[in-house]
Amino acid sequence: MPAIQDIGVDLGTSHILIYMRGRGIVLREPAVVAVDRDLNRVVAMGEDAHRLIGRTPGNIQAIRPLRQGAILDYDLVKALLTDMIGKVTGKHRLARPRAVLSVPSGVNDMEKRSIIGMMFDAGMRRTQMLERPIAAALGVGMRFDEAYGSMIVDIGAGITDVAVLSMNEVSVGASLPVGGDYLDDAVIRFLRKKHNLLVGERTAEEIKITLGSAVPPLAGESMEVTGRNLVSGLPKTQRVTATEIYEALKEPVDDLIEAIQAVLERTPPQLAADIFDEGIVLTGGGAALPGLADAVYDGLKIPCAVADDPQTSVVMGCGRALEDTPIMRSLLDDSRRRWRR
User: What is the spatial distance between Cα 30 and Cα 205, in angstroms, rounded to a whole number?
Assistant: First the structure.
């Protein structure tokens, strides 16, 4: 076995996942960097930095350097990539591995070239790009190499990709800033408006995971939530119900369904007919919202299913793209020769 194996990297808005050929997924950590602003240095990354969110002194900030599919800080993205890749390849590299990388759809070509330069500096011999919808489709084992329409919806933290695939490419697609972060923001806005309660991002995410649903909840579940009273400014504990959180999430879920419908309306009739027969596949961390597939079916009357492990679909697709076959080579970004270092 070679000293260093080729890797697949899913550089997402909320998490970075790395797949190593022959070993599977070897790293899954939050895409968070903690920075000491006074000393202008990084103090923690990944899981260590994520634990600091909302709990840092004024001089230390826990930052996600990608937000809504866009890069906010190149230096922090470079530091994050270098650190995470170093964890899986080791400090003493005998050879430079090849990487297949998928990034959020909001990243433009100039930013992609910069990221590939970062990957080279992090120890990669060559980096090739893979579109997220195609990576997700590969990761769930979807066949899209024939003249037949398949639809995949990849719901990330910052952005959602809706794509109709046919003949090994995206036939019709769209990206929208409706993802896990948008759902968290909806929870924050709802609690602020209804209960005068201000909660942080981590608390909102916990509420979404515990009580969130895209369809009306059957049981009367609830939980106590602690935040800051916007009237008195003092800490406040409020019991929140699953029905309330369903109400908070209804608008962003409806936005997602409308985006899927808009893509279907632009899809050639024959490919649209294929999708009505075969259904829609949901991937990405946001697809784990309970009842989301049912909500999509109720809204569009098209069969809908969630991938078995939706958060790993993209990185598994990147790993599969490492296979040196003509089909896999054809799926990688055609502009890779211009970006090779």
Answer: 14
At which residue do the structure tokens 């809706």 appear? 162
pLDDT, one tens digit for every residue, the chain (341 residues): 444 589 999 998 889 999 998 899 999 999 999 998 888 889 899 998 888 877 767 788 888 998 877 788 888 998 999 899 888 887 545 567 889 999 877 778 888 888 888 888 888 888 999 999 999 999 999 989 899 999 999 999 989 999 999 998 899 999 888 899 999 999 999 999 999 999 998 899 999 999 999 999 987 899 999 999 999 999 999 999 999 999 999 999 999 999 999 999 999 999 999 999 999 999 999 999 999 999 999 999 999 999 999 999 999 999 999 887 777 878 886 444 333 33
Question: Global pTM?
Answer: 0.89
> In degrees rounded to 5, what are phi and psi of residue 300?
-115, -15
What the chain holds in terms of domains, given with CATH numbers, is: 7-29+69-133+314-339 (3.30.420.40), 144-178+253-310 (3.30.420.40), 180-248 (3.90.640.10)
The token pair at 155 is 């719901």
Structure tokens at 2: 């070679």
Q: Are 166 and 148 in contact (CB under 8 A)?
A: yes
**Strand ranges (E), the chain:** 7-11, 15-20, 24-30, 33-36, 41-45, 60-63, 66-67, 70-71, 98-102, 126-129, 150-155, 160-166, 169-176, 197-198, 222-229, 235-241, 280-283, 304-306
